[in-house]
UniProtKB/TrEMBL annotation, chain A:
The lineage of its organism: Bacteria, Pseudomonadati, Pseudomonadota, Gammaproteobacteria, Thiohalomonadales. This is Uncharacterized protein (DUF58 family). The chain crosses the membrane at residues 33-56, 62-82. Keywords: Membrane, Transmembrane, Transmembrane helix.
UniProtKB/TrEMBL annotation, chain B:
InterPro entries: Bact_TGase-like, Papain-like_cys_pep_sf, TgpA-like_C, TgpA_N, Transglutaminase-like. It holds the Pfam family Transglut_core. It comes from Thiohalophilus thiocyanatoxydans. Keywords: Membrane, Transmembrane, Transmembrane helix. This is Uncharacterized protein DUF4129. PANTHER family: PROTEIN-GLUTAMINE GAMMA-GLUTAMYLTRANSFERASE (PTHR42736:SF1). Residues 405-476 form the Transglutaminase-like domain. It comes from the Bacteria. The chain crosses the membrane at residues 7-26, 61-78, 107-125, 131-151, 171-189, 554-574. The keyword Transmembrane applies.
Automatic annotation (TrEMBL), chain C:
Keywords: ATP-binding, Nucleotide-binding. This is MoxR-like ATPase. Residues 237-302 form the ChlI/MoxR AAA lid domain. Coiled coil: none annotated. Residues 42-172 form the ATPase AAA-3 domain.
């Protein structure tokens, strides 16, 4: 009975990998915080052993005392290191999509519900430089971690590590955090590919509803402040009341970014190219639509449209 | 791995570390060669200037050169690299040179750990109470600088240095109880584990195993404590405070010596005691000899002690740590009153020793009938003739006794004891020189006597038929008018002290008083901390009711002790909730009320106001509506309304009563 | 003047009841509007045309006995049209100041987002400073001074939405919304609201209002409440979803509104309930979500602020 619970509590896979992904918020407790001496800690132990041998050899009471004092400071320091992590809470805030081959920024909200300040917390994905922060009691902070974005599509955030060697650097306490959040990776934008020349105009099925000044779009009741130029004088003359003319339009070109235009390339390269086109078209302020074998996005523009297009590309296939 | 390789806060943290290193080096300064002391201070200064951005650090080539140069210089100074002096100098040198290449967190660690080493070597020179207190301070600084290097440059504390010091001292304070348990219970292995270097211990004594009056023109004077004595009963009178030490009986080449000790059994002496015994404990400072000291005349032997043919107490081992032993002495005694074994050895004198004094003795002997009358006559001679007591006597050359008795007539105890003993032997009276300490002053605050090295004394013992060995102190017959002492030295001579006491100013008196307080503390320190050894550990365990435990049990006990201490500290550190603000009793009562409700499934959401929660509960559980409303109303008043003291008390009382009575 | 510590609030409640008769089914909005008035703040109503913004303003003026002016903001409205203008008079050969519509106790600034930013800021400055400075001469605005501004939803054309930095000049922002079925029925079957307004007699005098406004500043705020307020503000600054948290001015606004709310509830101290009641109205127009989108996000954020544990 006891052994099983011990095995459950201390299991090598958890020790090295952390727990299975778990929903937010992640709380640090006695079960998921580990602690081991650092290289300095081992060096310190050796130093103490040598001092102790000297004290024994010379029957030097103060030598004994210093050894024991330093040893006790290390032990108490261990408790402090452990406490520095305990009770902390973590959650991953909304992650902005990234492009394949780039870096993804993972905002992690750290909360210290405890009554003591937390010093020198280091958070990092494996093989990435750590982000260092401090947390006064009862406060939150958001740190942004970076890691390679990985492949196109939904990607798990993966394991990152929260560690601390405060106060003496002799011990390192850490916890592996595996949040179950995911982030979206857009295809890598292809380089050096200009917008397609063969753009085709295609009338919108829904007609024009936008705001602009070119095309007459309709009439509505007059409101104070409406420009005099837009008052429908003829209607006034016909005693139909004060009406204001509404205009829309302002669009000159619509671009279809079409999967079929890239025949002969492998799917990922096609997606890459389309991704670049979407970015370009948005940047040039064009109306653009996206044609994919499994999805068609009507022409439009603006951040939301761009996001929809990129999302479709990311999740294609 | 999340290692912190770079130094993130160099100037400030380095400053703290440099201060700590300076304090580590400071106690070593008195015994370091001047060049090394200067080099150490220079290195610290250099590093400080570097950190404030003024000078570069020496390059690799220069550093290597410095190391070689310094080691050569060390070898030239000490001719060795091991041993107390050379070893600590070497460590200090390493520490100093490491300051020049302190770049990474790893280097800092090395510097701090070397600092600990150098600190320990200082204990080989002094283990005083002052040193102990000093150590605590330095350790705090070293720990604080370790913390400083851990913390980033922009901490949320306004004064990071102060914060680090506070954290460091808190760590130290929390560690102290654990350290104490370790100190008391860690099995004490009697050293040495390997051979001690020649200069291992600090012990020095004002006594030696030979005495050559006239060869040294100035008596070394040391205020150091030789031993301390705690009396069980009344303190013996000043004239009885003769602390018996090495006995010198062989006179050769104008010097007194003791031959290799011949160990005897206590039973081999014919000892007769009268009157009341004096019981006491002696705490002897380490002096690196086997000598033990006791009042004339010791009647018992401490554990592990022996007695030699001259009835001198000897420990079986050199006293290299403070040693405390119980003693019983009788001031009124007779030693070998009937038969004197080896009579010849106490009469032997080289041929042609002091012919003039031989004449004088013969002259005096003619005038007296018995040996004891002759002793009186010789003492009278010293008293009547213009003999002076001085601690800076002229040098004596060919025949020190004759030159002293008939020409210079100026000397200290050694001169008188030596001359008197020689004269006794010339009169065929067996005699020997006894060295030891005379006097000792009571610490008026702590009820024990301090005997200092400056109390070292020499006197004679003569063997008289029927009376045995009788103590004769020829120095004591010199009248005070012929004592030449400077005030400081005189103050330590018991006979002069009373005269001086009247002349002291209040400042001197209070300084003296403070000195006594400090010595009392130091005495405790020496007895209980520095002198803590295996036997004291056993005594402590016995007092705790743990008799005869082996080291395995001891280690188990040690682990349990540390475990309990750490658990207590952890319990305090990991306290789950913050303590509520003082006076915030209403909130505490309300939380209790919430817990009662929560047990029945009524959970208040964190953002739910008390009033809203109250309405929710009252609506769904009309039975308790009144009570819940009552409690909530009082709580809201206490927490949010402006109340005077009286209203506050009234509401609090109602709330307390209501919460206590409340049940679902 | 010897003001009682706690004024008689019965007339105030009477006034609120009277307002409720005219604006049916909008109890919460009326409460907030009166709270805003008591806290010496200004009110921003943001909603579709025709839901009763004007009626509310008019009714408040009538019930409180306030001198009322309505300014319809249009794109060609000039600052002078609001503040007033100095005109050279032949008879006296002097410039005389003709005060604009702003010199009234209650201003209804209709559709402020239709005016140019220049005109908007003239209004907002006057609101903030409670005085008008023209041609080097400073003229104080009457007391009490209360602006109810209305704003059409920003997606309508021809509008200049108020910049965020200006928005927090308004203490409270509220949306009226459509009336529920019962209220709608009452509205349709009842007497024309405009007629009711005309027959409305004041319940309060401007002096009464001033007394109430002074009483608001004497409402007690305990340390416990400040702790709670600070926790809310701190969270708003820490949530990653919020681009910029609540400013110190927003904190003061919250406190002022909560005090007024406590007075309305006949209490001499502020409770967390007061804070929560005014929180959405006070903060929604001051929070800017980190992501471009708004609407539901802000609502969710406000809910998060409401969920801050009460210490």
């Amino acid at each position: 009975m006891r052994t099983t619970s011990l095995i459950r509590r201390f299991n090598l896979a958890r020790f090295f990998q952390g727990d299975a992904p778990s929903p937010a918020p992640w709380r640090l407790n006695r079960r998921n915080v580990y602690i081991l001496p650092t290289r300095q800690g081992i060096f310190f132990g050796v130093t103490l052993a040598v001092i102790l041998l000297g004290a024994i050899n010379y029957s030097n009471s103060l030598g004994y005392f210093l050894t024991f004092l330093l040893g006790s400071i290390a032990l108490v320091g261990l408790l402090h290191t452990y406490r520095n992590l305990l009770q902390l809470q973590l959650r991953v805030a909304t992650i902005n999509p990234a492009f394949a081959g780039g870096e993804v920024s993972v905002p992690v909200v750290l909360e210290n519900p405890g009554p003591t300040p937390r010093y020198r917390l280091a958070i990092a994905f494996a093989d990435q430089p750590p982000v260092i922060c401090e947390l006064p009691p009862g406060r939150h902070t958001t740190v942004t971690l970076h890691k390679p974005a990985g492949m196109r599509g939904w990607q798990p955030v993966g394991r990152f590590t929260l560690g601390s060697t405060f106060p003496l650097g002799l011990f390192r306490a850490w916890s592996h955090v595996v949040p179950d959040e995911q982030y979206l990776v857009y295809p890598a934008p292809a380089t050096g590919a200009g917008l397609p020349q063969a753009s085709r105009y295609m009338a919108s099925l829904l007609g024009d509803q936008g705001v602009g000044s070119d095309d007459f779009a309709g009439l509505r009741g007059y409101r104070g402040g409406d420009s005099l130029k837009h008052i429908h004088w003829k209607a006034l003359a016909r005693e139909q009341g004060l009406l204001t003319k509404q205009f829309g339009g302002d669009r000159s070109e619509r671009l279809w970014l079409d999967w079929r235009m890239l025949a002969g390339m492998d799917p990922e390269s096609r997606l890459s190219r389309l991704c670049r086109w979407v970015l370009e078209a948005e940047q040039q302020g064009l109306e653009y639509g996206l044609w994919l074998p499994d999805q068609i996005l009507e022409p439009g523009h603006g951040p939301q449209h761009r996001q929809q297009c990129l999302r479709a590309l990311a999740l294609f296939g | 791995m999340l290692g912190f390789r770079s130094l993130s806060r160099p100037p400030l943290a380095n400053g703290l570390l440099l201060l700590a290193i300076l304090l580590v080096i400071l106690p070593h300064l008195p015994h370091l060669p001047i060049w090394l002391a200067l080099a150490g201070l220079l290195a610290i200064g250099w590093r400080l200037l570097h950190d404030t951005g003024r000078v570069p650090l020496p390059g690799r080539l220069v550093r290597t050169g410095l190391v070689v140069l310094a080691i050569l210089a060390l070898l030239a100074t000490y001719r060795t690299l091991v041993g107390r002096e050379a070893g600590s100098a070497l460590l200090l040198l390493m520490l100093t040179l490491k300051l020049f290449e302190m770049r990474s967190w790893r280097d800092v660690t090395v510097v701090v750990f070397l600092g600990f080493f150098v600190m320990v070597t200082a204990f080989l020179f002094s283990q005083s109470l002052l040193m102990g207190i000093y150590t605590l301070g330095v350790v705090t600084l070293l720990v604080a600088s370790m913390i400083s290097f851990q913390l980033p440059a922009q901490p949320f504390a306004r004064q990071p240095l102060l914060r680090d010091l506070r954290l460091g001292s808190r760590l130290l304070l929390q560690a102290l109880p654990v350290a104490l348990i370790l100190f008391l219970l860690f099995p004490r292995i009697p050293g040495p584990l390997w051979g001690l270097p020649e200069d291992a211990t600090t012990g020095r004594t004002g006594l030696s195993d030979e005495m050559a009056p006239g060869r040294i023109s100035r008596l070394a004077d040391s205020n150091a404590v030789a031993f301390r004595v705690q009396f069980d009963g009344p303190v013996p009178a000043p004239e009885q405070r003769y602390w018996r030490g090495p006995i010198l009986w062989q006179y050769n080449d104008n010097k007194w010596q003791t031959r290799p000790h011949q160990i005897r059994l206590l039973q081999q002496f014919d000892l007769r005691f009268q009157g009341q015994p004096v019981d006491y404990q002696v705490t002897l400072e380490p002096h690196n000899r086997q000598w033990l000291f006791a009042l004339d005349m010791p009647a018992t032997l401490p554990d592990n002690a022996q007695v030699n043919s001259e009835y001198q107490l000897l420990a079986r081992r050199r006293i290299d740590e403070a040693y405390r032993y119980p003693m019983r002495s009788y001031p009124d005694y007779q030693l070998d009153p009937q038969v004197l074994a080896e009579r010849a050895r106490y009469l032997s004198l080289p041929a042609n020793t002091s012919p003039r004094s031989r004449e004088l003795v013969a002259e005096l002997a003619a005038k007296t009938d018995s040996a004891s009358e002759l002793v009186e006559a010789v003492l009278d001679y010293f008293a009547d003739q213009p003999f002076y007591y001085t601690r800076e006597p002229p040098l004596l050359f060919d025949d020190p006794v004759d030159e002293f008795v008939f020409e210079t007539r100026r000397g200290y105890c050694e001169h008188y004891a030596s001359a008197f003993t020689v004269m006794m032997r010339q009169a065929e009276i067996p005699a020997r020189v006894v060295t030891g300490y005379y006097g000792g002053e009571m610490n008026p605050l702590a009820d024990y006597m301090i005997v200092r090295q400056s109390n070292a004394h020499a006197w004679s013992e003569v063997w008289l038929e029927g009376r045995g060995w009788v103590r004769i102190d020829p120095t004591s017959v010199i009248p005070p008018s012929r004592v030449e002492l400077d005030a400081d030295l005189a103050s330590r001579q018991p006979e002069v002290r009373s005269q001086l006491d009247a002349q002291r100013s209040w400042l001197q008196k209070s300084l003296r008083q403070a000195g006594f307080v400090w010595d009392a503390l130091d005495n405790r320190w020496q007895q209980w901390v520095i002198g803590y050894n295996r036997s004291q550990q056993n005594a402590l365990l016995k007092a705790l009711g743990l008799d005869d435990i082996n080291w395995r049990t001891l280690i188990m006990l040690l682990f349990i002790g540390i475990g309990v201490a750490l658990l207590v500290i952890a319990a305090v550190l990991f306290r789950p909730t913050p303590r509520s603000a003082p006076g915030n009793r209403a909130a505490r009562l309300y939380r209790r009320f919430l817990r009662k409700l929560a047990r029945r499934g009524w959970q208040k959401a964190p953002g739910e106001t008390p009033a809203r929660f109250c309405r929710r509960v009252a609506y769904q559980q009309p039975g308790v509506a009144d009570a819940v409303t009552h409690i909530t109303r009082h709580y809201l008043q206490l927490r949010y309304a402006p109340l005077n003291g009286d209203q506050y008390r009234r509401h609090l009382k109602s709330l307390r009563r209501a919460v206590r009575r409340f049940s679902l | 003047m010897d003001t009682p510590v706690k004024p008689d609030t019965r007339p105030l409640h009477q006034a609120i009841a009277r307002l409720g008769e005219i604006i049916v089914g909008k109890q919460e909005a009326i409460q907030l509007a009166v709270t805003c008035l008591l806290a010496r703040g200004h009110l921003l109503i943001e909603d579709q045309p025709g839901v009763g913004k004007t009626t509310l303003a008019h009714a408040v003026a009538a019930v409180m006995g306030l001198q009322y002016q309505r300014i319809q903001f249009t794109s060609d409205l000039l600052p002078a049209d609001i503040l007033g203008v100095s005109i050279f008079e032949q008879a006296t050969s002097r410039f005389t100041f003709h005060p604009g519509p702003i010199f009234a106790q209650l201003i209804l600034a209709d559709e402020v987002n239709r005016a140019t930013p220049k005109t908007q800021s003239a209004l907002l400055e006057a609101m903030e400073e409670r005085q008008v400075t023209m041609e080097g001469q400073t003229r104080p605005l009457p007391e009490p001074f209360f602006v109810i501004a209305t704003q059409n939803p920003t997606y309508q054309i021809g509008t200049f939405s108020l910049p965020e930095s200006q928005l927090d000049r308004f203490l409270i922002r509220l949306e009226l919304g459509y009336p529920d079925a019962d209220a709608e029925r009452a509205l349709l079957s009842g007497v024309d609201r405009r007629d009711m307004l005309e027959h409305l007699s004041p319940v309060l005098t401007p002096d009464d209002l001033l007394v109430y406004q002074q009483a608001v500043s004497r409402i007690h705020v305990s340390d416990g409440l400040l702790d709670y307020l600070q926790a809310i503000i701190a969270l708003s600054r820490e949530l990653p979803e919020i681009a910029s948290g609540l400013s110190p001015r927003a904190g003061l606004a919250l406190l002022r509104a909560a005090r007024a709310r406590a007075l309305l509830a006949d209490r001499d101290h502020v409770l967390p309930d007061d804070l929560q009641a005014v929180l959405p109205g006070v903060v929604t127009h001051r929070l800017r979500p980190a992501t471009g989108e708004s609407g539901h996000v802000v609502e969710r954020l406000v809910q998060q602020l409401l969920d801050v544990p009460i210490p």
